[in-house]
Amino acid sequence: MLNGAKILSGTDVAKEIRERLKKEVAEIRRQVPTLVPGLAIVQVGGREDSNVYIRMKIKAAEEIGMYAEHVQLPRSTTQDELLATVKRLNEDPCFHGIIVQMPLDSETPIDAHLITDAVSPEKDVDGLNTINEGRVATGDMSGFLPCTPNGCMELIKRTGTPIAGSYAVVIGRSKIVGTPMSELLKWADATVTVAHSKTKNLNLLIKKADILVVAVGRPEMVRGAWIKPGAVVIDCGINSIPDPTKKSGQRLVGDVKYEEALPVASHVTPVPGGVGPMTVAMLMQNTVQSAQRVARRLIEMEFRWCLKPLPLKLTEPVPSDIEIARAQEPKDVAVLAQEIGLIPSEVSLYGTKKAKVSLKVLQRLQYEDDAKYVVVAGITPTPLGEGKSTTLVGLVQALTAHKRCNSIACLRQPSQGPTFGIKGGAAGGGYSQVIPMEDFNLHLTGDIHAVTAANNLLAAQLDARIFHEATQTDQALYERLVPAVKGSRKFAPIQLRRLKRLGIEKTDPYALTPDEIRRFARLNIDPHNVVWTRVLDVNDRYLRKITIGLSPTEKNLTRDTSFAISVSSEIMAILALATGLEDMKQRLAKMVVAFDKAGTPVTADDLGVTGSMMVLLKDAIEPTLMQTLEGTPVLVHAGPFANIAHGCSSIVADDIGMKLAGKRGYVVTEAGFGSDIGMEKFFNIKCRASGKVPNAVVLVTTVRALKMHGGGPIVTAGAPLRREYMSENLDLLEKGLPNLLKHIENGLKYGVPVVVAINAHGTDTAAEHELVQKAAKAAGAFDAIVSNHWAKGGEGAAELAQAVIDACNRPSEFKLLYDLDMSIEDKIVRIAKEMYGAGTIELNSKVRDAIRLYTEKGFGKLPICMAKTSMSLTGDPSAKGAPKDFKLVINDICLSAGAGFIVPMCGEISKMPGLPTRPSIFDIDLNTETGEIEGLF
């Protein structure tokens, strides 16, 4: 210290840095309370020197308010296992920084360079990934700077010695210190020489250095006589040498002879207490910077997806749907997932064009604000088709690709019944489609098949239980239900739940009395009061009524039953209404499948099937990610029958969409059929279950449909349209307007703005459009827009998109139609009068008896899911327009306890459609040369 050299205390500087970082972490938490900067430290083996460093890092992280996790793996860890751990941490949003502690203490060979390169560059807070190293080498400091060199630079700056123009010598060329140190000095405008242990005349080279950084790994190699007077000396070495004066017999020294350097240099770092603490401080700083980047993205509410729309090549006349779909090459779904903010662990790829989305995204984004919520409904549909799905797709294309808003379409999965029957596909049409349309309209990811399997497993167990109870004594039945395994009997968890429902608190199978055994073992199902049926995802009229049990093995235990189409299964409704796995499990358990001979409901849980159904449905609860023709996201999920159930896509798909789209985004979902059926159930059943508040209704209409409601000629599928539909006819159109006006009125009763979308056709005239627009606005519609999305894609729906944006900016005044405390009959009356325009409601004695039973059994406060024709506001499908004060007859009623609603039946509602004389089957084929599916439309 003769010349007044200063000791550069890394300990003191690191403490200052930690104090600053502590304030920065507090500011992150203030701005985003749910965000805690997280650091993962991965260690293989248990070297004690590594453990010391890890404890230092964890202590520093805790001191500044960060979360640090020590991920310790055994010495037996293989390279692939370590890579899998790094991959998991890369995808875990809780961690903003990842380091792999070196050296790796493994029994198996592991390529350390491969491991450091496996750490995501966005989380590589050690700065060792080749990408981050390459950035430093080219002067790009936007990535993470390596910790030790960055700490050295901070210490040099603290000396006040100008770096620019200085001559710097770096002793050592390692990837971790020497090489990046030389790059940082170079880009700070120093003249840099990199030397090493084999450099000739090293002492003469060192003598010229204004700044000397030593990282060679040789104890006290650099002597004081080699150092230029007044130089800044940064000693990165840490070596253990013998010292009998120490209790351990060892002491730590650097690569520089410290006592000799002090009288010569202007500043010297001690060992320990110099570079080491700075390395840890820079690691903390990099991790906080990583968390700050995440926080900025969350804070900036103007955040937009980095989504690249696919351009359309519009053609006139508009080609067939399949030609348009095949002319567009979809983007890889993994790319789409990344564009909308999904992380790889939340996406399960099914090839390259569709993927399942994990419900884990809801947990990750649970504190994010929801997007605006828009539902698309229609007027009373006609055989002409109003293009509700096409309008929904076109609207989302316009919002995302043309208005540059985050926007997701949520659609139901089509059943194979209509695809092979007469309706055809449901992927939209023209230049507003979901692609690939073949995947969309067929198996997709197998959800409907999973529903079919779960439904039929329950049906099989139900009939098997009836058979076994009829052919066994109480004791024999009990012993088979609770079999002895290795001499001991044990209740399954689902059996313990049944005991609890019976009021039996015992858990020991040997402790039950004979009466308790009988009550537990016998469900006493009334074969004449079984409400559960088997399902199949095809239109098959001959399954509408069948007799089962005709085999001699069933001992004459026959009964009449039926099949329904898979999408009418209560399990499909549950899939659409469940908010998560546990909610789905509880709903499945509560499904009433039959009544016993005393009139008590028998549930799926009583039959012991709940867990097995969950196993079959565990993947089905995840929505499927697809895309529109313009490369914008679509979530396809569930497909409950709109007549029997509520006819909406799933709650989880909407929830995921609203979190991904964010506060300034939009989720556009669908309601089956018209406002009287789909929209009413969307509001009173789905929104009640989800707790979501809709911001706007888009009501789809067409000039052609309104003419039919005005008394136009009957339309037959496949037959040429009559002149009335092909040319201007204002009188006929005006007579049909009451149907549209009724649907507008229905939407307004919920306090939600209604935007009328006039789905344009080439035969419409400007005068017809103007007539519809004026009438809609006069009836209270927020706006009425002519949309040409079928012919022009999102561009043709841009005006509609703007109207939806404007409508969503209005404060929501949403209210439900009825209170659940109302009686079942009063709720039915409220819906019939308010939504349909009915004058009187007639309930037959069978329905009244069922209502009394449901009320007695505790189901009276469930919402109502009316089952009636979609083709009319009344119960008569031939009654068009907007009839008033008619009589609505409720001729049957059933319970969907798991789905959580009661279903009154108006007229004959078939749950199993039949094939027409000429179904679409005739047109669908596989081209065996190209592998393409033909005939879908």
From TrEMBL:
Domain Tetrahydrofolate dehydrogenase/cyclohydrolase catalytic residue range list: 8-126
Domain Tetrahydrofolate dehydrogenase/cyclohydrolase NAD(P)-binding: 146-293
Catalytic activity: (6S)-5,6,7,8-tetrahydrofolate + formate + ATP = (6R)-10-formyltetrahydrofolate + ADP + phosphate; (6R)-5,10-methenyltetrahydrofolate + H2O = (6R)-10-formyltetrahydrofolate + H(+)
EC number: 1.5.1.5, 3.5.4.9, 6.3.4.3
GO cellular component, one term: cytosol
Keywords of the record: ATP-binding, Cytoplasm, Hydrolase, Ligase, Multifunctional enzyme, NADP, Nucleotide-binding, One-carbon metabolism, Oxidoreductase
Coiled-coil residue spans: none
Gene3D superfamilies to which the protein is assigned, alphabetical: Domain 2, N(10)-formyltetrahydrofolate synthetase, Formyltetrahydrofolate synthetase, domain 3, Leucine Dehydrogenase, chain A, domain 1, NAD(P)-binding Rossmann-like Domain, P-loop containing nucleotide triphosphate hydrolases
Pfam families xrefs: FTHFS, THF_DHG_CYH, THF_DHG_CYH_C
Compartments, as annotated in UniProt: Cytoplasm
MF term (GO), any: methenyltetrahydrofolate cyclohydrolase activity
GO biological process, one term: tetrahydrofolate interconversion
Keyword flag Hydrolase: yes
Pathway the protein takes part in: One-carbon metabolism; tetrahydrofolate interconversion
Assembly notes: Homodimer.
Family, similarity comment: In the N-terminal section; belongs to the tetrahydrofolate dehydrogenase/cyclohydrolase family.
Protein name, per record: C-1-tetrahydrofolate synthase, cytoplasmic
